[in-house]
Input
Amino acid sequence: MARSGTAKRVTRTATVPEKIPIRLTVNGNHMELTVAPWTTLLDALRDHLDLTGTKKGCDHGQCGACTVLVDGRRINSCLTLAVMKQGAEIVTIEGLAQDGELHPLQQAFIDHDAFQCGYCTSGQICSAAGLIAEGKAKTADEIRELMSGNICRCGAYPNIVAAIQQAMERS
Amino acid sequence: MTPFQYARANDVADAIKQIATDPSAKFIAGGTNLIDLIKYDVEGPSRLIDISHLPLRSIEPTSAGGVLIGAMVPNTDLAYHPLIEGRYPLLSRAILSGASQQLRNMASTGGNLLQRTRCFYYYDTATPCNKREPGSGCSAIDGVNRINAILGTSEACIATHPSDMCVALAALEATVHVTGPAGARTIAFADFHRLPGNTPQRDTNLEPDEIITAIELPPKGFSANYSYLKIRDRLSYAFALVSVAAALELDGDTIKEARLALGGVAHKPWRSSAAEAALLGQRADATAFAKAADWLLHGAKGYGHNNFKIGLARRAIIRTLDQAARGTPQSNSDKKIR
Output
């Protein structure tokens, strides 16, 4: 990596930091974009790539509405800098359905009426996809514990747990 | 938020070199705390040096019989690693009782040690805070201090350290491996975090130009008799009001060795050699546990809203020691405290 000398660095800190080109694979598509160093993955998805299914709730890692899968793991995209995920594979709610078929979790959320306002739902579903991939939750108690990073202000929790159980049984 | 520049460190030496050239730069690994603090204008680094790609991701047995954990190992990987689940289940349980699975997937082992306090006033830039702005005063002492410390406080600061993982690491007597311009050194876990004193802006004894490379666990994991009990305002995904890590080595009913650490009550994981010594050679029963609790809480002081923590901690210590002695550690998913 090229490193600037002291004189150049001083000049640069006095100016607006340069934007940085990054490459991401988002829902199977190769994307090239240029972002400021402080652009979160959440803002990159929503504002640069028009993938607004991922929601900005608290923007502080407290609600889980921004949950996406990065290299197969669920994370809070609001606390992730896009520049730090150079080359990563991202899956958002838009990438879960395959060939026009809803993902089993999407279908299960509909079957169990697992939402009311729907704002937390894309984060809930991406988080649940991560949970199922982890394979650590077996019981309803364990699902509740490992889904605790996703807050639902409407209180659809019993139906969310039922939906995840259905999807787990069918996966 | 203050705009910042971004650079990636290629290796540990490069990271140290980069931080040395820019004192207002900061390392970033998982970012779960630092990005939040930047958004709140509590932190305003000129540059973030990305250390998340450094090759510090292994978990390996040491020749001494312990385990060496790379600083970039995500919290989930550490908690679920067979060596940790099998030999150091106290550490595994403590990690899994903190944050959420999303945050644990992001957060690094080294970064967990360097979390800043969750004191409301530290986050609120409209109020004085000696940790955020040295010399400005402490808003918590006479303010809303329900979540604040009861032990090891100073007139300058009553903040607590928020980590669960660190409470277990303190009880297990881990060692922190760090590297700086002068080379590598190790810091005993008890000496890593500081009490606030007159310099609450300094949480740890890590120098600004040093980087954590690994955490080393000693051979003893207390896998038979341990428990981590965390008391909080909701059943999951909340910081501890009080947490207790207890580890015992028993010979029948007799305590041969005891480790006890508290979270949520001080500026660092709280231990007391007197409390642990008081348990040695004793029968593992309520009388011995109560004595240990009294030693551990010796000098505890409430600031109004947090007075309840003293009694809560006493009961939690006794219960956690009982769980450890019975070999029935607190479950993270079944929330009933038995």
User: Anything to note?
Assistant: The two ends of chain A are 44 Å apart (CA to CA). The beta strands of chain A are 20-26, 29-35, 67-70, 73-76, 89-91.
